[in-house]
Amino acid sequence: MDERKITGHREFSLKRFFFQWEWMLVLIFIIINIINSFLSPYYLNLRQLISTTATFLDKAFVVLPMTFVILLGDIDISVASTIALSSVIMGVLYNLGVPMAAAALICLVVSTLCGFFNGYLITRFKELSSVIITLSTSIIYRGIAYIILEDQAAGNFPSWFSFLGWGELGGIPLMLIAFAVFAVAFAILLHKTTFGRRVYAIGNNATASRFSGIQVDKIKIIIFTMVGFMCGVTSLFLTSRMGSTRPNVALGYELDIIAMVVLGGVSTAGGKGRIGGAILAVFVIGFLRYGLGLINVPSQLLLIIIGALLVTAVLISKIRMNVKKVRTVPSDIKQ
Amino acid sequence: MSDYILEMRGITKQFPGVTALDQVDFQLKRGEIHALIGENGAGKSTFIKIITGVHKPEAGEMYLDGQKVDFKSPREAQEHGIAAIYQHSTCYPDLSVTENIFIGHEKIQKGTKRLLWKEMHSKAQALLDELGAGFDSRAQMGTLSVAQQQIVEIAKALSTNARIIIMDEPTAALTRRESEELYRITEKLRENGTSIIFISHRLEDMYRLADRVTVFRDAKYIGTWNLSEVTNEQLIMAMVGRKITQMFPQRKSQIGEEVLAVENLRRIGYFEDISFTVHKGEIVTLTGLVGAGRSEVCQCIFGLEEYHGGRILLEGKEVKIDNPLKAMSLGIGYLPEDRQKQGLVLDWEIVKNISLSALDRYANKGWLNEELEAESALQLAQKVNVKTNSIFNPASSLSGGNQQKVIIAKLLNADLKLMILDEPTKGVDVGAKAAIYEIINDLTSQGYGVLMVSSEMPEVLGMSDKIIVMCEGRITAAFNKGEATQEAILEAAMKKHAAAGA
Amino acid sequence: MIELDKIKPKKWQGKGESLTRFRELGMLATIVVISLLVQMRNPNYLTFENINDLLTNTAILSILSVGMMLVIVTRGIDLSIGSVLALSGMISALAVSANPNLHPLTAMLIGTVVGTASGAVVGLLISKGGLLPIIASLGMMNVYRGLTYMISGGRWVSAYQMPESFKYIATGRIFGINILVFIAVIIYIIAFYFVNYTRTGRQIYAVGSNPESAKISGINNSRIYFLVYTIMGALSGLAGVLWVSKFASAQGDTATGYEMSVIAACVLGGVSMAGGSGKISGIVMGSILLGIINNALPLINVSPFWQQAIQGVIILSSVIINTVVKRRVDKNNLMRRKI
């Protein structure tokens, strides 16, 4: 039979390199910044731009592990409730006289446990989709927050704690630094390690992954636990910025977070997308909000823009994929 | 002219990158069973989808009763009396049997368009009774067995008053007894004047049933013969296009010490009292009918399913295997039956597929070394002779046989002692089959123990050193190489366990 | 053959039926047990007035779950309904406040039309645009919520701006029973007939049960997808008017997050997220069970702040119990298999 040579070197394809969703986001990002700087003379101020990131980065911490969850083909609706519950517990404990550092630590522990519990239920009851399970736990977690604090607020945190959310190091917000560190860590985890490779494998074909000796359950539990932990981190920064906490904090965050991940080009069908896209999406939406705020566009309009952006972005990527498919059809076939 | 109920002339169908059908002709007589055979990828399934209006051909004409027709939708084909029973059951598991039968042509009250359930239930029950089915028309489809679902599909075809019924591999998932039942029903349909196109991989189906046979090869029409006037060799020649000498290469392997011993293994509801051994350099084949519990035994050994009794010994030491990772670290590899669902990540590059089961080999403390990965995957792909121009092509771009080779390469990634091969040549064309046999023989000569599951008689007889026959969860016979005959295996495969105990 | 004809084997009924029945009986039993327990603690529970209240409060939830059931049956999900509800409620409230002589039925019509149009957009994105339901509805959720704020200019429409005739929709009674309950019952009946006795209704189940074969059977899948989201939109629009009339206020943040309660009612009512199955009787009971919890807790002096957690625990345990029972049934079937 024919002895064809197999090559073992990846050919660099310029077309493929530029045919990535991330470029689209970069483009949107640049356009937003150009428009913003035209609309408002105050916009193009680097210091200001950098320090404004602290206004929208709180939920971005959860965007990172949520990317993993969506890559698995799952979803976690309970993140906002987890943030609320851990924040409320921290506030109440502090007001009861527990030292702030200990309360903050407990906040992280609680949120991590919430995430672990989700992961445990999802792997233990595989017949149930992650939507159902995290929907129920989201009701439970926030419900517990209501039981604890009812309609009260907890707060009066020490000044060092508010430094967390408001502080800057060399003109760079602490929050941005923390986010950068986490973002790099999660990006490495996803794209450079065996763990990340396995996550993609599970998202593409969970059965084949199991047959290949990947411990699907273990990986799922780890990821949901990571989501929980990062909810705790968000909870710390959010609570610090707000100065007090209530059971209804972070209401609706889960959908904002999922929207950012999806806008970042991660498919909710699982297995496709990169973390860079999700991170870009965080800044696209963040700067959009900031710019529109400067020119006094009502924040409601922003909701419409974000929604429309999400839908058209995914629509465009669909159309793009169809174009790609049609192109590979030999030209002599009429479709 | 009007001798033919259906005539197709010069049908051509192209998909992106491939010509699925190239100038194909076909003629179907009234009241005949017409077998359509060909290797995988010969274009049979596409052809059926054109007759039933699912695909539109780029060129060619179709005549029904001498009238030219041009179906724009499946519904139109249905209205012309064409019904198809597809390879994979196309049922609605959540709906009742009646609904499955009547979907698309429900009985409705004139005027109000209300669905007439009572009428549909009784008509459905009448059809089922006529076919000798032992289940209620109100039962939920998903709770029926594959064979029962197949009967529902036939009832559905009958309910549309179909004149032409197309069966695409209807016996693929049936046991022998169920197949007999299907033959009986099919013959009855012919007596009633229905024309049937019967697609099957099993030549025995064709000999048992068909009046005429048409062969496709490589998307082309090869010929049509009366079954009484053609020899087996001629047909195989027509299908394969070349003579296959040496399908099962001679093998001189040294059978060494014991690798695997299974003692009284038991899994509730699946199998009972399974014992056998596999030695180095030996091929042990588990055979029997589909559903006899062969794959389940293998999956227990590989740690995919739990077992409820008995022992598994590896090189004489008892092991407790509760997950595939453990099995792999102990030196057991498993090639699953369904390569697309269980074996591969189809969208992924060949490299990533090959390395998936042994990622830790290409990593240092969790950090992937992609260069090492590509290098080693290339070697493995060359070793099993995967036909592709780059290992960065997606697995979905490969043919069935080459996909199977990728999975074998994936197994070779780890240091194994025992290879479990579950239907290694299922749905693979003849040429690739020979190549896979070559690889398997190569493995045994390197000292691997091979445990194979196979339903194909020539493969079982040609490859195995030891043949173990299972029936309904129990071992009913075991043969050494040379002792077994086709008849003896079949008898054991259909023997009830009551007889086995005697 | 003759013998076979004589011995008619007991026909295989399938285990699917019995499981569904177990589920419904279980839910009914839960409702009865909870009712009895509450009644023992507080005799005011099982009174006509209280039950009327309970049903009135459940009506909107159950109307929305009818639509959501159809959506989930096709393997979809609609997160936009809270926003659609707010938008149509706001538009109809603005209409009546600007035009106090508007007939309440016209107001309802306006709301329903707005809802239908909003649902149709979501449906188009999913059926023609090929977007995943969760994304399309998430995106449009933001758009509709934003529109609601924009149209109202961030202001509320309050009780004093609404004519009595409009508020009457949700407060009026026929034979002593609240009009909302009547509307809900009419919708159940129509929906019941629709899903059980019309072709299109059954096609919704067929598409959800097996989308691939639905195509082969000649069902127009995208028409079905479009249809269910449009129906969902219409019901959300209607619910928007009822909501505004009931609470006598239309706000930008009306019904934020309500989609989750509706999905929860469906899940509790046995609608499978995997598609293909779900019954009207199930979701009505699911909604009532949620309604009872809200209604009964204050009556037995449980702090209202416990409501949410208790609801969550009930939803979670109901789906878990169902899974465990199904596993047990499957296992017993295996044990019985002869080897």
The multimeric state of the shown protein is heterotrimer
Question: Could you name the ranges of chain B where pLDDT drops below 50 across 5 or more consecutive residues?
Answer: 497-502
Structural class of chain C: mainly alpha
Order of helices and strands of chain C: HHHHHHHEEHHHHHHH
Q: What's the architecture of the largest domain in chain B in CATH terms?
A: 3-Layer(aba) Sandwich
Give the neighbour order of strands across the main sheet of chain C.
1-2
The count of domains of chain B is 3
CATH C-level class of the largest domain in chain B: Alpha Beta
What is the number of helical segments of chain B per DSSP (H or I, 4+ residues)? 18
What is the compact description of this entry?
The complex is a heterotrimer of chains A (335), B (502) and C (339). Chain A is mainly α and 335 residues long. Chain A is 71% helix and 2% strand.
Lay out the secondary structure.
The complex is a heterotrimer of chains A (335), B (502) and C (339).
Chain A: H1 14-18, H2 21-39, H3 46-52, H4 60-71, H5 79-95, H6 100-124, H7 130-149, E1 154-155, H8 159-166, E2 168-169, E3 172-173, H9 174-192, H10 194-204, H11 206-211, H12 216-242, E4 244-245, H13 253-263, H14 275-294, H15 299-328
Antiparallel strand pairs in A: 1-4, 2-3
Chain B: E1 4-15, E2 18-29, E3 33-37, H1 44-51, E4 59-64, E5 67-69, H2 74-79, E6 82-85, H3 97-102, H4 117-130, H5 146-159, E7 164-168, H6 176-191, E8 195-199, H7 203-209, E9 212-217, E10 220-226, H8 232-240, E11 258-267, E12 271-279, E13 283-288, H9 294-301, E14 309-314, E15 317-319, H10 324-329, E16 332-335, H11 339-343, H12 350-355, E17 363-364, E18 367-368, H13 370-383, H14 400-412, E19 418-422, H15 430-445, E20 449-453, H16 457-463, E21 466-471, E22 474-480, H17 486-494, H18 497-501
Parallel strand pairs in B: 3-8, 3-9, 6-7, 7-8, 13-20, 13-21, 16-19, 19-20
Antiparallel strand pairs in B: 1-2, 1-4, 4-5, 9-10, 11-12, 11-14, 14-15, 17-18, 21-22
Helix pairs in contact in B: 4-5, 13-14
Chain C: H1 2-6, H2 15-41, H3 48-73, H4 81-98, H5 104-127, H6 133-152, H7 164-171, E1 173-174, E2 177-178, H8 179-197, H9 199-209, H10 211-216, H11 221-247, H12 258-268, H13 280-299, H14 307-336
Antiparallel strand pairs in C: 1-2
Helix pairs in contact in C: 2-13, 3-8, 3-11, 3-12, 3-13, 4-5, 4-6, 4-11, 5-6, 5-11, 7-11, 8-9, 9-11, 12-13, 12-14
